[in-house]
């Protein structure tokens, strides 16, 4: 009989703070850059308590709508936009990324940032999206987005950021329970 060994995707953390964060991983663009925006929020568990040991990744299009293909995602040089960011939450579940708003989609759908969640108790990562509030107010953009148009309004709301007075985007994730964030599956992967 062959003994199987757990791989990182099957091992429950918390080991994220040790192995995965990298210097300025939360800064897709330098703070204060022209066109920069702050995406921030809190990650909550099923009881509504903040999760202090979680790691988030974001993947997104550039401000002009193109999908970046630059190398060096883990090296921040202050000039190259790779569309990738990674950060651990703080001790009260808070996270913050400095990025740009993704540009228009070729299909006219609502603009979004892809989010990957690694957290305690998860045997595998979770995939979701955060949408810009202005796009979700546009019925044509919602209709052109296969995910948004397939969701009832209350579930759709879990994917929409709130625009704050300073222009920042606030978006909280709920891993279970009331107001649970909609998560995606990719059966082909």
What percent of the residues sit in helical stretches (DSSP H or I)? 10-25%
Catalogue the unreliable spans. Answer: none
The N- to C-terminal Cα distance equals 28 Å
What is the architecture of the domain at 13-108 and 117-123 and 163-174 at the second tier of CATH?
Sandwich
What is the molecular shape?
Answer: globular
Computed CA radius of gyration, to the nearest angstrom: 17 Å
- Taken in chain order, the helices and strands follow as HEEEEEEHHHHEEE
Protein name: Protocatechuate 3,4-dioxygenase subunit alpha
Keywords: Dioxygenase, Oxidoreductase
InterPro entries: Intradiol_dOase_C (IPR000627), Intradiol_dOase_core (IPR015889), Intradiol_RC_Dioxygenase (IPR050770), Protocat_dOase_a (IPR012786)
Family: Belongs to the intradiol ring-cleavage dioxygenase family.
List keywords for this structure.
5 helices, single chain, 4-stranded antiparallel β-sheet, 9 strands, alpha+beta, 189 residues, 5-stranded mixed β-sheet, Protocatechuate 3,4-Dioxygenase, subunit A
């Amino acid at each position: 009989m062959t003994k199987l060994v757990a791989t990182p995707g099957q091992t429950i953390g918390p080991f994220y703070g040790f192995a995965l964060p990298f210097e300025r991983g939360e800064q897709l663009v330098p703070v204060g850059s022209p066109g920069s925006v702050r995406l921030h929020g809190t990650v909550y568990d099923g009881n509504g308590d903040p999760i202090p040991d979680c790691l988030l990744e974001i993947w997104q299009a550039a401000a002009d709508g193109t999908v970046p293909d630059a190398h060096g995602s883990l090296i921040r040089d202050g000039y190259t936009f790779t569309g990738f960011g990674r950060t651990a939450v703080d001790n009260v579940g808070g996270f913050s990324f400095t990025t740009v708003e993704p540009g228009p989609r070729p299909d006219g759908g609502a603009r979004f940032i892809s989010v990957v969640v690694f957290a305690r108790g998860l045997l595998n990562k979770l995939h979701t999206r955060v949408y810009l509030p202005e796009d979700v107010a546009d019925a044509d953009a919602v209709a052109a987005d296969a995910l948004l148009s397939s969701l009832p309004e209350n579930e759709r709301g879990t994917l929409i950021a709130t625009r704050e007075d300073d222009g920042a985007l606030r978006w909280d994730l709920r891993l279970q329970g009331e107001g649970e964030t909609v998560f995606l599956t990719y059966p082909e992967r």
